[in-house]
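Researcher: Quick test of sequence recovery. Tokens follow.
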């Protein structure tokens, strides 16, 4: 339904922006049937926003820990050690989570390797 969004800043990640836009445009019953697809595992903030937006399914390619390994202590990615499964599993709604997919991890990580060295 909503196809593409990049991070805008440290509190406006792609997943939060898409979830907010979807929640404003569609009824919860419809969103419950939707899937949020992300290259990387959504952070705690993004997973929480997805939960409150009533998006029923998450698919991601690479774990947040792999992104942290690339970014280190980079100011633009102050990663928390809190998986999306933990965040989503802490609520009352049963949200399906699919990922990571190790067979595509190298392909997903490739464009980010040089970016975080700046």
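Model:
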């Amino acid at each position: 339904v909503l196809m593409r969004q990049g991070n805008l800043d440290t509190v406006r990640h792609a997943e939060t922006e898409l979830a907010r836009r979807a929640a404003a445009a569609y009824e919860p019953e419809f969103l419950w049937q939707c899937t949020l697809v992300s290259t990387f595992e959504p952070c705690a903030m993004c997973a929480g926003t997805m939960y409150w937006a009533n998006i029923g399914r998450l698919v991601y390619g690479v774990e947040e820990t792999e992104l942290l390994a690339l970014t280190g202590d980079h100011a633009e990615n102050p990663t928390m050690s809190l998986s999306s499964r933990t965040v989503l599993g802490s609520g009352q709604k049963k949200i399906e989570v699919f990922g990571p997919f190790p067979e595509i991890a190298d392909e997903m990580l490739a464009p980010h390797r040089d970016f975080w060295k700046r």
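The two ends are 34 Å apart (CA to CA).
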